Amino acid sequence: MALPNPRTVLISAPSPPGCSSSSTSSAAFVPPSPSDGELLRSLHRLARDLSAAAETPAPFLRAALASITRRSKLLAAAFDDLATCAGDLPRSASLCLREVLLVLQRFKAVAGDCAARSRMRLLLQSDEIEEEVRELHHELATMLDLLPVAELGLADDVVDLLELASRQCRRFPPAAGAEQALKARVLSLIQGIEREIVPEKERLEEILEEVGVNDAASCSDEIESLEREIGDRGSERWTDAMIALVGLLRYAKCVLFSATPRPSDPKPETEVDDEDAEPPAPPPDFRCPITLDTMREPVVVASGQTYDRESITRWFDSGKSTCPKTGQVLTNLELVPNKALKNLIAKWCRENGVAMESTSSSEASKAEPAQAVSANKAALEAARMTASFLVKKLSVSFSPDAASRVVHEIRLLSKSGSDCRAFVGEAGAVPLLVPLLYSDDAGLQLNAVTALLNLSILEANKKRIMHAEGAVEGVAHVMSSGATWRAKENAAAAVVSLASVHTYRRRLGRNLSVVEKLVHLARTGPASTKKDALAALLSLAGERENVGKLVDAGVAQVALSAISEEETAAAVLAALAKRGGAEAIVAIDGAVARLVAEMRRGTEWARENAAAALVLLCRRLGARAVTQVMAVPGVEWAIWELMGTGTERARRKAASLGRICRRWAAASAADGERGNGCPDASVVPPAMMAS
């Protein structure tokens, strides 16, 4: 493989700021080359770094990469002596050493890339990596042979070191058959799984041992690395095999390493939270400037500011083209994913035991690309085998510690895509998880309720949960007596998921225990728990039959008390007002004034729902509600401002509210002229009803 000429590299480099790119001799500015002294110091430093490089985690590549370390040790000793040479180097020697520097830099890039990749990907690409290392050895040998050692006046022992390094580079061994045999065995395992052949435990253990995966921690790390590389499209050629290997490793982790807990896993889940303790607050940079919630999918806009994709998309959809934080008019509305920040947020969430995804989408939305997995037969069969193994093991697990580890794996598997959720549900996990909701072990209870939450995303599993004996009562028990706030929060999120089905929404609403526990969470829980409880109440309020029970349970009061903290609260009030709860809302002292305040100062969605709730109150209760609206100072300004800056729906609701108020004012003025005083609060003017 031909090496790039260092002069070509320099010529193609960009011009430094302030320098013209035009020249009489060249169309591009040629930056000055490093001095010979700098060159020798760079060579010595780079050779020293390569000689001290840590071993690769992949055993099958250690021989190839160890050769780089050995050659670098010889070169480091030679360059150490060469660096003491005074004066400039001969031109031929300087050019040759610059080429050597390029080769060593490429050696370093290969070593760094291997250290960052998953072991399985390294195995799949081992022949490509070895070929690249071989070519670099030959290029290094060529440069060392061309080096004019006689002109450099080197000592004999230094010349011997350079000649030895050159000979060793040329004797780089051919590709070892062991790596290719191991690769063939791994691919054979995948093919067997495609044919629904369960891998032999001893064979699987032997192969993973050779790959360097020998405990639960390394297996979990390997799965995470592969999933990250699949998402980043690190190797299109091997993507299908990598997806299959994720499934195989999940199965291996359960079958081979399930008895060994991962020591590096954070343990806040298993600690009983203080009843008043809040989950750790995320760093300010992790919060979306619009919603102040932790960003799930951070994106950068043209101004350079970062927002959560959902929030900024809603901002743009409302007709705005400015940066919310700076007010700057954006030159375009393109959204660029901020992957670095997303990885930092994910790492913080893992370390602090905080779920990164919103509970409405649950952990289930974090998995590998669903379409790719669904199209990969080996991955599907591996997931089916894993689900069957875990459910069978759970059925015979008697100790809380053993059950907790199995349920934790079920929880992880059930967030990996709809196919995995289907396999876990079909294997019969739901009836086995329900009794664990009453466990005194905090970690086991949390894993059980979170597994049910993840499973409930699938429509078929909703039916399995709702028809499982004691499942709804168990979820209600966790909401009231859960050992951690996170368990209570996930139980409320499970209600949100289950209530998405019309018949289940009615059934849950008829369960007074569920309603009362949700109200209690919305009243006393920390911010994230309160948000999920209100979301569940909003789902239940979508059914007219449930509204009376919700009102009797105090949902209107709870929503009003949370209206300045959670944007969902305004939506709950609007849903109640629409389906028969208007009287209960207006009867609460200051309710209308707080809705007007939310219409002015809330988030986009909260302002929209506050306006919708006020319109519904006025239409349902007539002058009784309009009188309270008009009595709020500045309401006209709030309506006018929302008409100009709100979402499309918010502008429509604000316009409707404005028409209602104007008609009431006109009717009031007409009655005043006739000496009749204010309009009768019990009468709804026909014009108001038609608005």
From TrEMBL:
Pfam families xref list: Arm, U-box
Molecular function GO terms recorded: ubiquitin protein ligase activity
Feature: compositional bias, Low complexity: 18-30
InterPro entries: ARM-like, ARM-type_fold, Armadillo, RING-Ubox_PUB, Ubox_domain, Znf_RING/FYVE/PHD
Residues annotated as domain U-box: 281-355
Pathway: Protein modification; protein ubiquitination
EC class of the enzyme, as a word: transferase
Domain of life according to the entry: Eukaryota
CDD domains: RING-Ubox_PUB
Keywords: Coiled coil, Transferase, Ubl conjugation pathway
Start-end of each ARM repeat: 428-470
Catalytic activity, reaction form: S-ubiquitinyl-[E2 ubiquitin-conjugating enzyme]-L-cysteine + [acceptor protein]-L-lysine = [E2 ubiquitin-conjugating enzyme]-L-cysteine + N(6)-ubiquitinyl-[acceptor protein]-L-lysine
Keyword flag Coiled coil: yes
Region (Disordered): 1-33, 260-290
Protein name: RING-type E3 ubiquitin transferase
Organism expressing this protein natively: Digitaria exilis
